[in-house]
Structure formats: C-alpha cells, structure tokens
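Morning run. Coffee first, then this:
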Amino acid sequence: MYDVIQSKSDCDYRYRITRIDRGVLLSCQKKQRPRRSLGWLYRTEEAAEKGMEAMILLNAMWDASARGYSVEELTKRFVMAAYNHRDAIKRFDDPPAEIGEVRLALLNS
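And here it is:
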C-alpha cells in the first residue's frame, strides 16, 4: 500500500514523497524516462521533505549551469537547503537509505 504525500515537478523532473510499507520514499524521476526513478528511503516525512527541497535546487543549479546561466543565487539557496536536510537527518537520526533505481507504477501515475 502507498500514499503520495507530496508531488512537485519542474521542466525536466518529477519529485514525489510517498509513504510506503518500509517508510517514506523520496523519488526523483526524469520526465524523459518515465519508467525509471531514483529513490531514497527515510523514516520521517520531514527529513524526506528537506531532501526534496535540496534535490530540486541541486537539479535547478545543474540545469542553469549547463545552459550558461549564473548559478550564484541558486548555489546559496542549495547550500541552505542542504544544511537544513543535514540538520533534519541529525535531529531525527534518519539518514536516507539510497535504494537506487525505483520501478513502481505508482511513480508514473
């Protein structure tokens, strides 16, 4: 059983936080590869949410840099999001278990 808690997307990626039997799954799916997604498993929603914020900013930074745009402001925002993610991991003693490629039909719905 699963329950999608939060879903966000940008031009290239879809991000989801999903409660599954084993915990809280944070997934990142490139829209060009709809059947493949990378995932990290957490125990707490808050740590997964902080991870999602950092992941979104990291992907935005990479995309902006690849297109030749300035990434100074995005870098500052990413550093703060990464700090918040690390803080949540420490507070909840909830380091993510990287589960690699996730192939779930629910991620494509």
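Confidence is low (pLDDT under 50) at residues 105-109. Good start to the day.
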